[in-house]
Amino acid sequence: MAEGLTNKERLQIPPTPMAEQSPEERRHNILEVPLGYTPEQAMTEAKRCLMCKNTFCVTGCPVSVDIPGFIGLVAEGKFHEAARKIKETNCLPAVCGRVCPQEDQCQVVCMVAKSLKDTAKSVQIGKLERFVADWDMANHPEADFTPVPSSGHKVAVVGAGPAGLTCAGDLLAQGHDVTMYEALHRAGGVLVYGIPEFRLPKAIVEREVEGLIQRGLHLECNVAVGKSKGIQDLFDEGFEAIFVATGAGLPMFKKIPGENLLGVYSANEYLTRANLMDAYGFPERSDTPILRGKHVVVFGGGNVAMDSARTALRLGAETSTILYRRSLAEMPARVEEVHHAKQEGVEFRMLQDSIEILGDENSWVTGVKCLRMELGEPDASGRRRPVPVVGSEFVIPADVVVVSIGNGPNPLVPRSTPQIQTNKWGNITADKDSAKTTMPGVWAGGDIVLGAATVILAMGEGRKAAKSMHEFLETGVW
């Protein structure tokens, strides 16, 4: 475990940067931006860990990965053992190493960062997790699990996103017979329809899903539970427990004039066409078209807005602009994603808000009418409220507009199952400790409960539900 190094010596090792494609090159392709660590780089970075007795980093991880445990193994060059350690609690390490906001979770409480009084110098836990997962996929592609005896219990998971996949993985580990239903034609949820290839290659998601299938998962795609069959139908088919993880894929709009013009997309549709349906490859390898605008404007300041703006560049846009009504300090997107977007040439218009989308006589978008803003008092989110500057209207040209201001919960299961209670926003109401809903035998978690959140938080919900479901199946007590 990096024997011989004192804590003082560990603190003197600088963070190991990860090589990336150059901005000039990557804005013209859909290949992944970061290129990964070499084994030597990973071992060097791992030696920075202080191996604290009080593992604040583990507490900061929604799925409770043994972070010092796996990093210690990396420092010794025991990469396969490190992968096994991570997979004790995380069935999607290659995904989490790429898209988790480690800087706000495990890394923000890292004692190295606290000792150096610089959060940017925390141990690069996410990069190490990514390295370990990638190394193990390349060197141990076979499914790596210990078979467990069948419990005889039959479970259904509705939705093949991060929460559903995690719940299924934990239930399989207990020997339960798990069938997963997915409305789309590929498993992965937001991992395949929302997050672009340049951030999360789809082959990685496919390998993670395939690992669950090799462990016994029954996957049925193109089945929209709540429409083609209901929750009660699943009980009638013999399922004893059901986990609902159908996500928050209902796009929201601003309800301003012009949102019905040609050339206006929700971020959901824009990214789903580009990612899940491979509109990048139209018409050579894909049947899915997408409007390749010259001047694309994206409303919003989250990770999805960054994904949309960066996707527009890769689709050939001459200009790609983020329009955000607050300042950069209030922007919810990850610092890394904002940094990458700026490097690639995305223009950021802060403290500016759209009030109308303009169009021509044929109903095609021609521009966005905007209003300058200034920040007032904090609102319920803790961010300062944007206040319009009277008389500051102006117009920016656009031929494609992408609306990325949030998503609502998938309504199919709640609308078709009145026994399941929802809140005023349409999210399923579930117990925060057990993930139980108001319908006996049904649990729910992920974005359908939380609202649009992070991948790792959804995974934590899946783990919580799986624990409660297993207890129910073993005891029969609701």
Q: What is the helical fraction, as a range of percent?
A: 25-40%
Strand content: 15-25%
Radius of gyration: 23 Å
Number of domains: 3
Whole-number mean pLDDT: 95
CATH T-level fold name of the largest domain: FAD/NAD(P)-binding domain
Broad CATH class of the largest domain = Alpha Beta
The biggest beta sheet is recorded as: 5 strands, parallel
Distance between the termini: 45 Å
The CATH architecture of the largest domain can be given as 3-Layer(bba) Sandwich
CATH superfamily of the largest domain: FAD/NAD(P)-binding domain
Total DSSP E strands: 16
> Strand order of the main beta sheet, please?
3-2-1-4-16
Which structural class matches the secondary elements? alpha/beta
Coarse shape: globular
Total helical segments: 19
Low-confidence stretches: none
Task: Please characterize this protein's 3D structure.
The chain is of the alpha/beta class and 478 residues long. It has three domains: 133 residues, Alpha-helical ferredoxin (Fumarate Reductase Iron-sulfur Protein, Chain B, domain 2, Orthogonal Bundle); 164 residues, FAD/NAD(P)-binding domain; 153 residues, FAD/NAD(P)-binding domain (3-Layer(bba) Sandwich). 34% of the residues lie in helices and 16% in strands. It has 19 helices and 16 strands. The protein has a five-stranded parallel beta sheet with strand order 3-2-1-4-16. Strands 6-14-7-8-9 form a five-stranded parallel beta sheet. Strands 10, 11, 12 and 13 form a four-stranded antiparallel beta sheet that branches. Strand 8, helix 16 and strand 9 form a beta-alpha-beta unit. The longest helix has 21 residues.
